[in-house]
Design brief:
Helix content is 40%, strand content 19%. By secondary structure, it is of the alpha/beta class. The chain has an eight-stranded mixed β-sheet with strand order 3-4-2-1-7-9-10-8. The chain has a six-stranded antiparallel β-sheet with strand order 12-13-11-14-16-15. Strands 5-6 form a two-stranded antiparallel sheet. Strand 3 (139-140), helix 6 (157-169) and strand 4 form a beta-alpha-beta unit. Helix 2 runs antiparallel to helix 3 (57-78), helix 3 runs antiparallel to helix 4 and helix 4 (82-102) packs antiparallel against helix 5 (109-133). It is globular. It binds aspartic acid.
Length: 447
C-alpha cells in the first residue's frame, strides 16, 4: 500500500482537483490519499478564529460567508451530475452552519481547533464525491477515528497503528482510502491538529503505521532543489537524498516538506518521494537510506532569525551555566536553532520571538545581553563528516566578502550552518551556487 499526500495548491482549484484525481486513479495499487485544505483556506479559518477571539463577530461572519461562496462556486464547476452537486451542497451547508454556530457561543481555545479542522474536512469530502461522480469507488476515513496525539502533541504511534489497521482490515475491498491531513484528536478526545503544515506529518505517520511501501508527497515543484530557485537562477532538482540531509534542509528553509515528517518514515525505512502534481512526469526527489553520498547536496536559507548573545565572566570555568540559560528558553517555550559558545559568551538563535521580552528579562540576570535581528541561517546539507579535509575551506572560500555572525559545524555529519544578515542572503546563495555547484552550473550552460 502507498500513501499519496496532496497539499493545498494541489487541491486548490477545480482543475487541480481533477489533476489529483487523475494521479490517484492512474494505477490499481491500494492507497491512502491524504489531503490538505484548499490553498488559503486554513489561513482564512485562522483569521475567522482570531476575529472571534477579539469578539469581532460582524467581520468573522463576513469571512465565513466569503469562504462559503468560494466553496459554492467550486462545486458548481466541479460536479456535472445533479446528485453529486446536491450531496456536496448539503455537506457545505453543514460546515457553514457549524462555523456560524460558533458565533453564538463564548469563544474558547478549543473552538480554534474546531474551526481550523473544517478546511481538511471539506476538501476530503469534495474529493470523495468527485471520485464517486467519475465512477471510482473509494472510502473516506475520518482522521478523528485514528489520528491521536498525546499530552505533548506527539502522535500516539501504537494507538494510531491499531486503530488504522483495524479500519483498513474491515474494508478489504477498498483500493482508495481518503483521509484528512493535519487534524487529529487529543487526549481529552477534543479536535486538535499537528500544527500548521502538518499534513506531510500525517502522511508519514500513516505510512509508518501501515508499513507503506512508499510515501508520496505531491506538491507544486519538481522535488527538492540544490538551492533556492526563488533567489538563484541555475538550480537543479535533487534525484535522491538521505533522510538526514532532507531533515536538515526541511528544517532550515526548504519549505517543501514539514521537518517532522521525515522521522516516522526514517524509523520504518519507508522511501519518501516528492512529486509535482502539475508535472507528474518529472522524476521528483526520492528520500531514502541508500543514497550515493555526495559531499554537498544542497543549500537552503531560513529567514526571520534573531540572535541573542549572553556575555558573562561568571561563565569562565563554571559548570551549569548553559543549563540555566536553556531553562529560560524551555520555560518560555522557545526552541533554539543554532548555538555557539566561547569561554565568556553564548550566542544562540531563535525564530519564534513571541516570548522574547520575557526571555531577555530573565537572561539579564546572567550577564549582558545583545540582540540582533533580520538574520538568516544558511544551511548546507551533504556528507559533511568532520574527518574529511577541505569541506569548510571550499564553503568559506566562496564567501570572502560576506560578514558571518555565527557558524555551526560538527553537530551532525550532514549539516553546516552559518548566520548572515538577511540583506546578504541572496548574494550568499548565489556565491555558494557558483562556488560549490560550479560543475553542474557549467553543464547547464552547455545546453
Ligand atoms: N491546512 C494546514 C495548513 O495550511 C495543514 C497543511 O496543509 O499541511 O497548515
Amino acid at each position: 500500500m502507498i500513501i499519496l499526500k496532496f497539499g493545498g495548491t494541489s487541491v486548490g482549484t477545480v482543475e487541480n482537483i481533477k489533476k489529483v484525481a487523475k494521479i490517484v486513479v492512474a494505477n490499481d495499487e491500494s492507497k491512502i490519499v491524504v489531503l490538505s485544505a484548499m490553498s488559503g483556506v486554513t489561513n482564512t479559518l485562522q483569521k475567522i478564529s482570531n476575529l472571534l477571539y477579539l469578539k469581532n463577530y460582524e467581520e468573522a461572519k463576513l469571512e465565513i460567508q466569503i469562504l462559503n461562496n468560494k466553496y459554492k462556486s467550486i462545486i458548481q464547476r466541479l460536479f456535472n451530475v445533479e446528485t453529486s452537486f446536491n450531496k456536496a451542497d448539503v455537506m457545505l451547508t453543514y460546515h457553514y452552519n457549524l462555523l456560524l454556530s460558533i458565533l453564538d457561543i463564548e469563544f474558547e481555545e478549543k473552538h480554534e481547533k474546531i474551526i481550523l479542522a473544517q478546511g481538511e474536512l471539506v476538501s476530503t469530502n469534495l474529493f470523495q464525491l468527485f471520485l464517486e461522480e467519475i465512477g471510482e469507488s473509494s472510502s473516506l476515513i475520518s482522521a478523528f477515528d485514528f489520528m491521536k496525539i498525546d499530552i505533548n502533541g506527539e502522535p500516539e504511534v501504537q494507538t494510531i497503528e491499531n486503530k488504522l489497521l483495524n479500519i483498513i482490515s474491515n474494508r478489504l475491498d477498498t483500493k482508495i482510502f481518503i483521509t484528512q491531513g493535519f487534524i487529529c484528536k487529543n487526549t481529552k478526545g477534543e479536535i486538535d491538529n499537528l500544527k500548521r503544515g502538518g499534513s506531510d506529518y500525517t502522511a508519514s505517520i500513516i505510512g509508518a503505521a501501515i508499513d507503506a511501501t512508499q510515501i508520496q508527497i505531491w506538491t507544486d515543484i519538481d522535488g527538492m532543489h540544490n538551492n533556492d530557485p526563488r533567489f538563484v537562477d541555475q538550480t537543479i532538482s535533487i534525484d535522491e537524498i538521505s533522510y538526514d540531509e532532507a531533515a536538515e534542509l526541511a528544517y532550515f528553509g526548504a519549505k517543501i516538506l514539514h521537518p517532522q515528517s521525515i522521522i516516522p518514515a526514517k524509523e520504518k525505512n519507508i522511501p519518501v518521494l516528492i512529486k509535482n502534481t502539475f508535472k507528474p512526469e518529472a522524476k521528483g526527489t526520492l528520500i531514502h537510506h541508500n543514497t550515493v553520498p555526495k559531499r554537498i547536496r544542497a543549500v537552503a536559507a531560513k529567514d526571520n532569525i534573531t540572535a541573542i548573545k549572553i556575555k558573562s565572566y561568571r561563565m569562565l570555568m563554571a559548570y551549569g551555566f548553559l543549563k540555566k540559560i536553556f531553562e529560560v528558553f524551555d520555560k518560555n517555550q522557545t526552541a533554539i536553532d543554532m548555538i555557539t559558545t566561547s569561554e565568556v559568551a553564548v550566542s544562540l538563535t531563535i525564530d519564534n520571538i513571541h516570548n522574547i521580552d520575557k526571555i531577555i528579562q530573565e537572561l539579564k540576570g546572567f550577564g549582558s545581553i545583545e540582540i540582533d535581528s533580520e538574520l538568516s541561517i544558511i544551511c548546507i546539507a551533504g556528507d559533511l563528516a568532520q574527518n574529511k579535509k577541505g569541506i569548510t575551506s571550499s564553503i568559506f572560500n566562496c564567501l570572502k566578502n560576506i560578514p558571518i555572525r555565527m557558524i555551526s559545524y560538527g553537530g551532525s555529519n550532514h549539516n553546516l550552518s552559518f548566520l548572515v544578515k538577511t540583506s546578504d542572503k541572496i548574494a550568499v546563495l548565489n556565491l555558494l551556487n557558483k562556488g560549490l555547484f560550479h560543475n553542474l552550473v557549467k553543464k547547464i550552460n552547455l545546453f
